[in-house]
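Design a sequence for this backbone.
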């Protein structure tokens, strides 16, 4: 199998394997995008209204104003708990790590003991050596509380808080989280924990079974309605009736800025910050309601990515591009819709981003390979003559000798046709000797000799007379050879290609020499003018550069652009005939002097009458001071009577002059020059030419001034 064909199968195979591995490993960059998809998928689940039994008592700004500086006396917290005696469970999300006032400590502990429904908080902190240290409630409260759980929460890979850690190892013990610790009080039984095949575990709480992945994460379904929330001070002062908390799950925690950390969570309205007590309420609500999709094992994501990658390869490799694109888009849409439907209706979370990337990248890469490799083979077999001819005539002006050019491009010819370039250029005797022909034979111009057989290698050889050496004038020859069987017509075509390219090369080089001689002469004339009028030194070159750019932007063809470029370079050549005393005069010219200066365009036309210039270039020299409204000179032409080359050079000439210092005035700013050209558009200057000039030269944010 040819190498290019093997590459066609090897490259897609590599892509399939790469995406399979990516699906299995779940790279961090892709996982960050996957989380955004998860947020949207969570919103597509049926609404999870707040559990009717969950109530929040928050320490907000109002409570701080009423009860004073934080922290408050533990007697105050005991009084609050006393008003919640009929609650089903009280989750006290406030840390009491050290003993304080003995009276307050004992009162709070005693109230918690009597109620028998209090869950207290503890927190894990880093001890400085990388190990966790448990920050527990003081001993009296710890022994009096019914349950205890940790309040630590961990951000996801993008800094948002999406998951909850139900359990955490501390030495040999498995410590429950704050919300999980409350479940026995709420449900009357401890949650059941059992291993799951994906390396995680399942938590069964009442009628809900929730999956926890291998990293210990329980994804949270955030509610779309707020939990009932009351101010700490209002409850303490009896403004909220005790019946509100009967048989309710009450979470008490800080919500005022400065005493509570806020976490960023993705909810229906976007990303928002909520206090920690609110986050624990959401976690508890999820535990009680369930309905959390379980993420499939990474092996499944890897297989899905490979399947979509293979699909992309097949669609790009075996269907027409338009059909393949439509089918790929359909498969892509179906894949996204299918994973969404599975997420909502079967409680399984499949990766979306990796399979989508696998399909898109595999399709595009295979399509590229197909056109670069397979389509290339087809082109060589069916259009080889045209493609080789295009190859041989392109870039002929980039080398000094035709033989050098043949050597530079022949590897492509040899690869496509199997012909070798044996030598080029060769003198007549050496060429016939290598061919094996009779040295006495005289080779005629354009003659081709083909020799076959004998002991020579390659078996077939062809000698083609090409161009003369550009330095010596001696005819040169090109010798090619081949062993494979090539049709006679194709051999003749190769000979024609070589000869025609050689002739074209000779004409091109001769034309280049003539053109270069002309331009060198013109530039010498302009250099003489610059020496004569130092105030305008470099003006012609700048006008030429700007005129050429305007012509290109206007969409003129190459011949017109060349004529504009040439005419703009020499537009002031007639100033050679203007007296030095007038050109170098400082201050305004008299009417008589100005009349003499105006003759330079006519003088330039006469100087160039004997030079074979393009007609447009000649007119640009004569008419670049004509104006659209007829106020110009020397003929007073108006409107369409002025050719396009003259209109372009006229605009570029005036614009550059305005930006240059002259003996009789200082240069204008570019803003002033742009405003002047804008104001004269349509009267003195062609509107389209001025518009292009301003597109090129106007500074950012410029607006015309009157």
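Sequence:
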């Amino acid at each position: 199998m040819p190498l290019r064909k093997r590459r066609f199968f090897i490259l897609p195979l590599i892509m399939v394997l790469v995406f399979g591995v990516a699906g299995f490993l779940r790279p961090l960059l892709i996982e960050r995008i996957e989380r955004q998809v998860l947020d949207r998928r969570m919103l597509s689940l049926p609404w999870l209204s707040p559990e009717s039994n969950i109530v929040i008592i928050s320490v907000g700004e109002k409570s701080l104003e009423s009860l004073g500086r934080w922290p408050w006396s533990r007697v105050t917290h005991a009084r609050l708990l006393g008003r919640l005696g009929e609650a089903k469970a009280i989750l006290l999300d406030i840390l009491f790590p050290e003993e304080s006032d003995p009276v307050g400590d004992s009162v709070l502990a005693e109230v918690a003991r009597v109620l028998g429904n209090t869950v207290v908080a503890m927190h894990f902190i880093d001890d400085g050596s990388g190990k966790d240290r448990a920050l527990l409630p003081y001993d009296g409260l710890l022994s009096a509380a019914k349950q205890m759980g940790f309040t630590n929460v961990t951000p996801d890979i993008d800094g948002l808080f999406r998951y909850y850690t139900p359990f955490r190892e501390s030495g040999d013990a498995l410590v429950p989280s704050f919300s999980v610790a409350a479940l026995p009080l709420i449900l009357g039984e401890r949650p059941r924990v059992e291993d799951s095949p994906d390396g995680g575990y399942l938590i069964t709480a009442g009628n809900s079974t929730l999956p926890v992945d291998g990293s210990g994460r329980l994804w949270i379904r955030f509610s779309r309605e707020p939990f009932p929330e009351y101010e700490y001070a209002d409850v303490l002062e009896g403004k909220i009736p005790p019946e509100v908390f009967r048989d309710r799950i009450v979470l008490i925690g800080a919500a005022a800025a400065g005493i509570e950390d806020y976490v960023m969570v993705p909810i229906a309205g976007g990303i928002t910050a909520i206090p920690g007590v609110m986050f624990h309420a959401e976690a508890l609500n999820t535990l009680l309601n369930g309905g959390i999709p379980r993420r499939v094992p990474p092996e499944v994501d890897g297989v899905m990515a490979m399947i979509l990658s293979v699909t992309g390869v097949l669609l790009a490799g075996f269907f027409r591009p338009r059909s393949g694109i439509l089918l790929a888009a359909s498969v892509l849409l179906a894949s996204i819709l299918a994973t969404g439907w599975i997420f909502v209706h079967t409680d399984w979370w499949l990766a979306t981003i990796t399979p989508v990337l696998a399909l898109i990248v595999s399709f595009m890469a295979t399509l590229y390979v197909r056109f670069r490799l397979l389509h290339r083979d087809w082109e060589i077999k069916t259009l080889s003559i045209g493609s080789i001819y295009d190859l041989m005539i392109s870039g002929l002006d980039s080398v000094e000798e035709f033989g050098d050019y043949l050597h530079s491009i022949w590897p492509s010819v040899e690869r496509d046709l199997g012909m070798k370039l044996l030598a080029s250029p060769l003198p007549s005797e050496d060429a016939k000797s290598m061919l094996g022909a009779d040295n006495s034979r005289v080779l005629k111009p354009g003659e081709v000799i083909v020799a076959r057989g004998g002991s020579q290698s390659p078996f077939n050889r062809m000698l083609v007379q090409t161009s003369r050496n550009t330095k010596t004038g001696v005819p040169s020859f090109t010798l090619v050879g081949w062993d494979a069987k090539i049709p006679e017509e194709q051999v003749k075509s190769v000979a024609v290609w070589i000869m025609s390219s050689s002739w074209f090369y000779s004409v091109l080089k001769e034309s280049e020499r003539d053109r270069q001689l002309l331009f060198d002469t013109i530039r010498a004339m302009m250099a003489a003018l610059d020496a004569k009028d130092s105030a305008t030194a470099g003006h012609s070159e700048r006008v030429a550069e700007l005129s050429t750019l305007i012509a290109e932007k206007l969409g003129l063809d190459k011949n017109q652009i060349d004529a504009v470029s040439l005419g703009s370079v020499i537009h002031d050549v007639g100033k050679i005939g203007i007296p030095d005393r007038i050109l170098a005069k400082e201050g305004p010219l008299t009417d008589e002097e100005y009349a003499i200066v105006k003759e330079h365009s006519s003088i330039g036309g006469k100087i160039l009458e004997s030079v074979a210039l393009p007609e447009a270039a000649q007119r640009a020299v004569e008419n670049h001071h004509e104006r659209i409204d007829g106020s110009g000179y020397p003929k007073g032409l108006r409107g369409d009577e002025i050719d396009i080359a003259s209109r372009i050079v006229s605009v570029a000439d005036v614009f550059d002059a305005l930006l240059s210092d002259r003996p009789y005035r200082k240069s204008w700013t570019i803003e002033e020059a742009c405003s002047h050209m804008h104001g004269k558009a349509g009267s003195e200057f062609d509107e389209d030419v001025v518009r292009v000039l301003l597109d090129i030269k106007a500074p950012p944010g410029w607006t015309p001034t009157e």
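Residues 375-389 have pLDDT under 50 and may be disordered.
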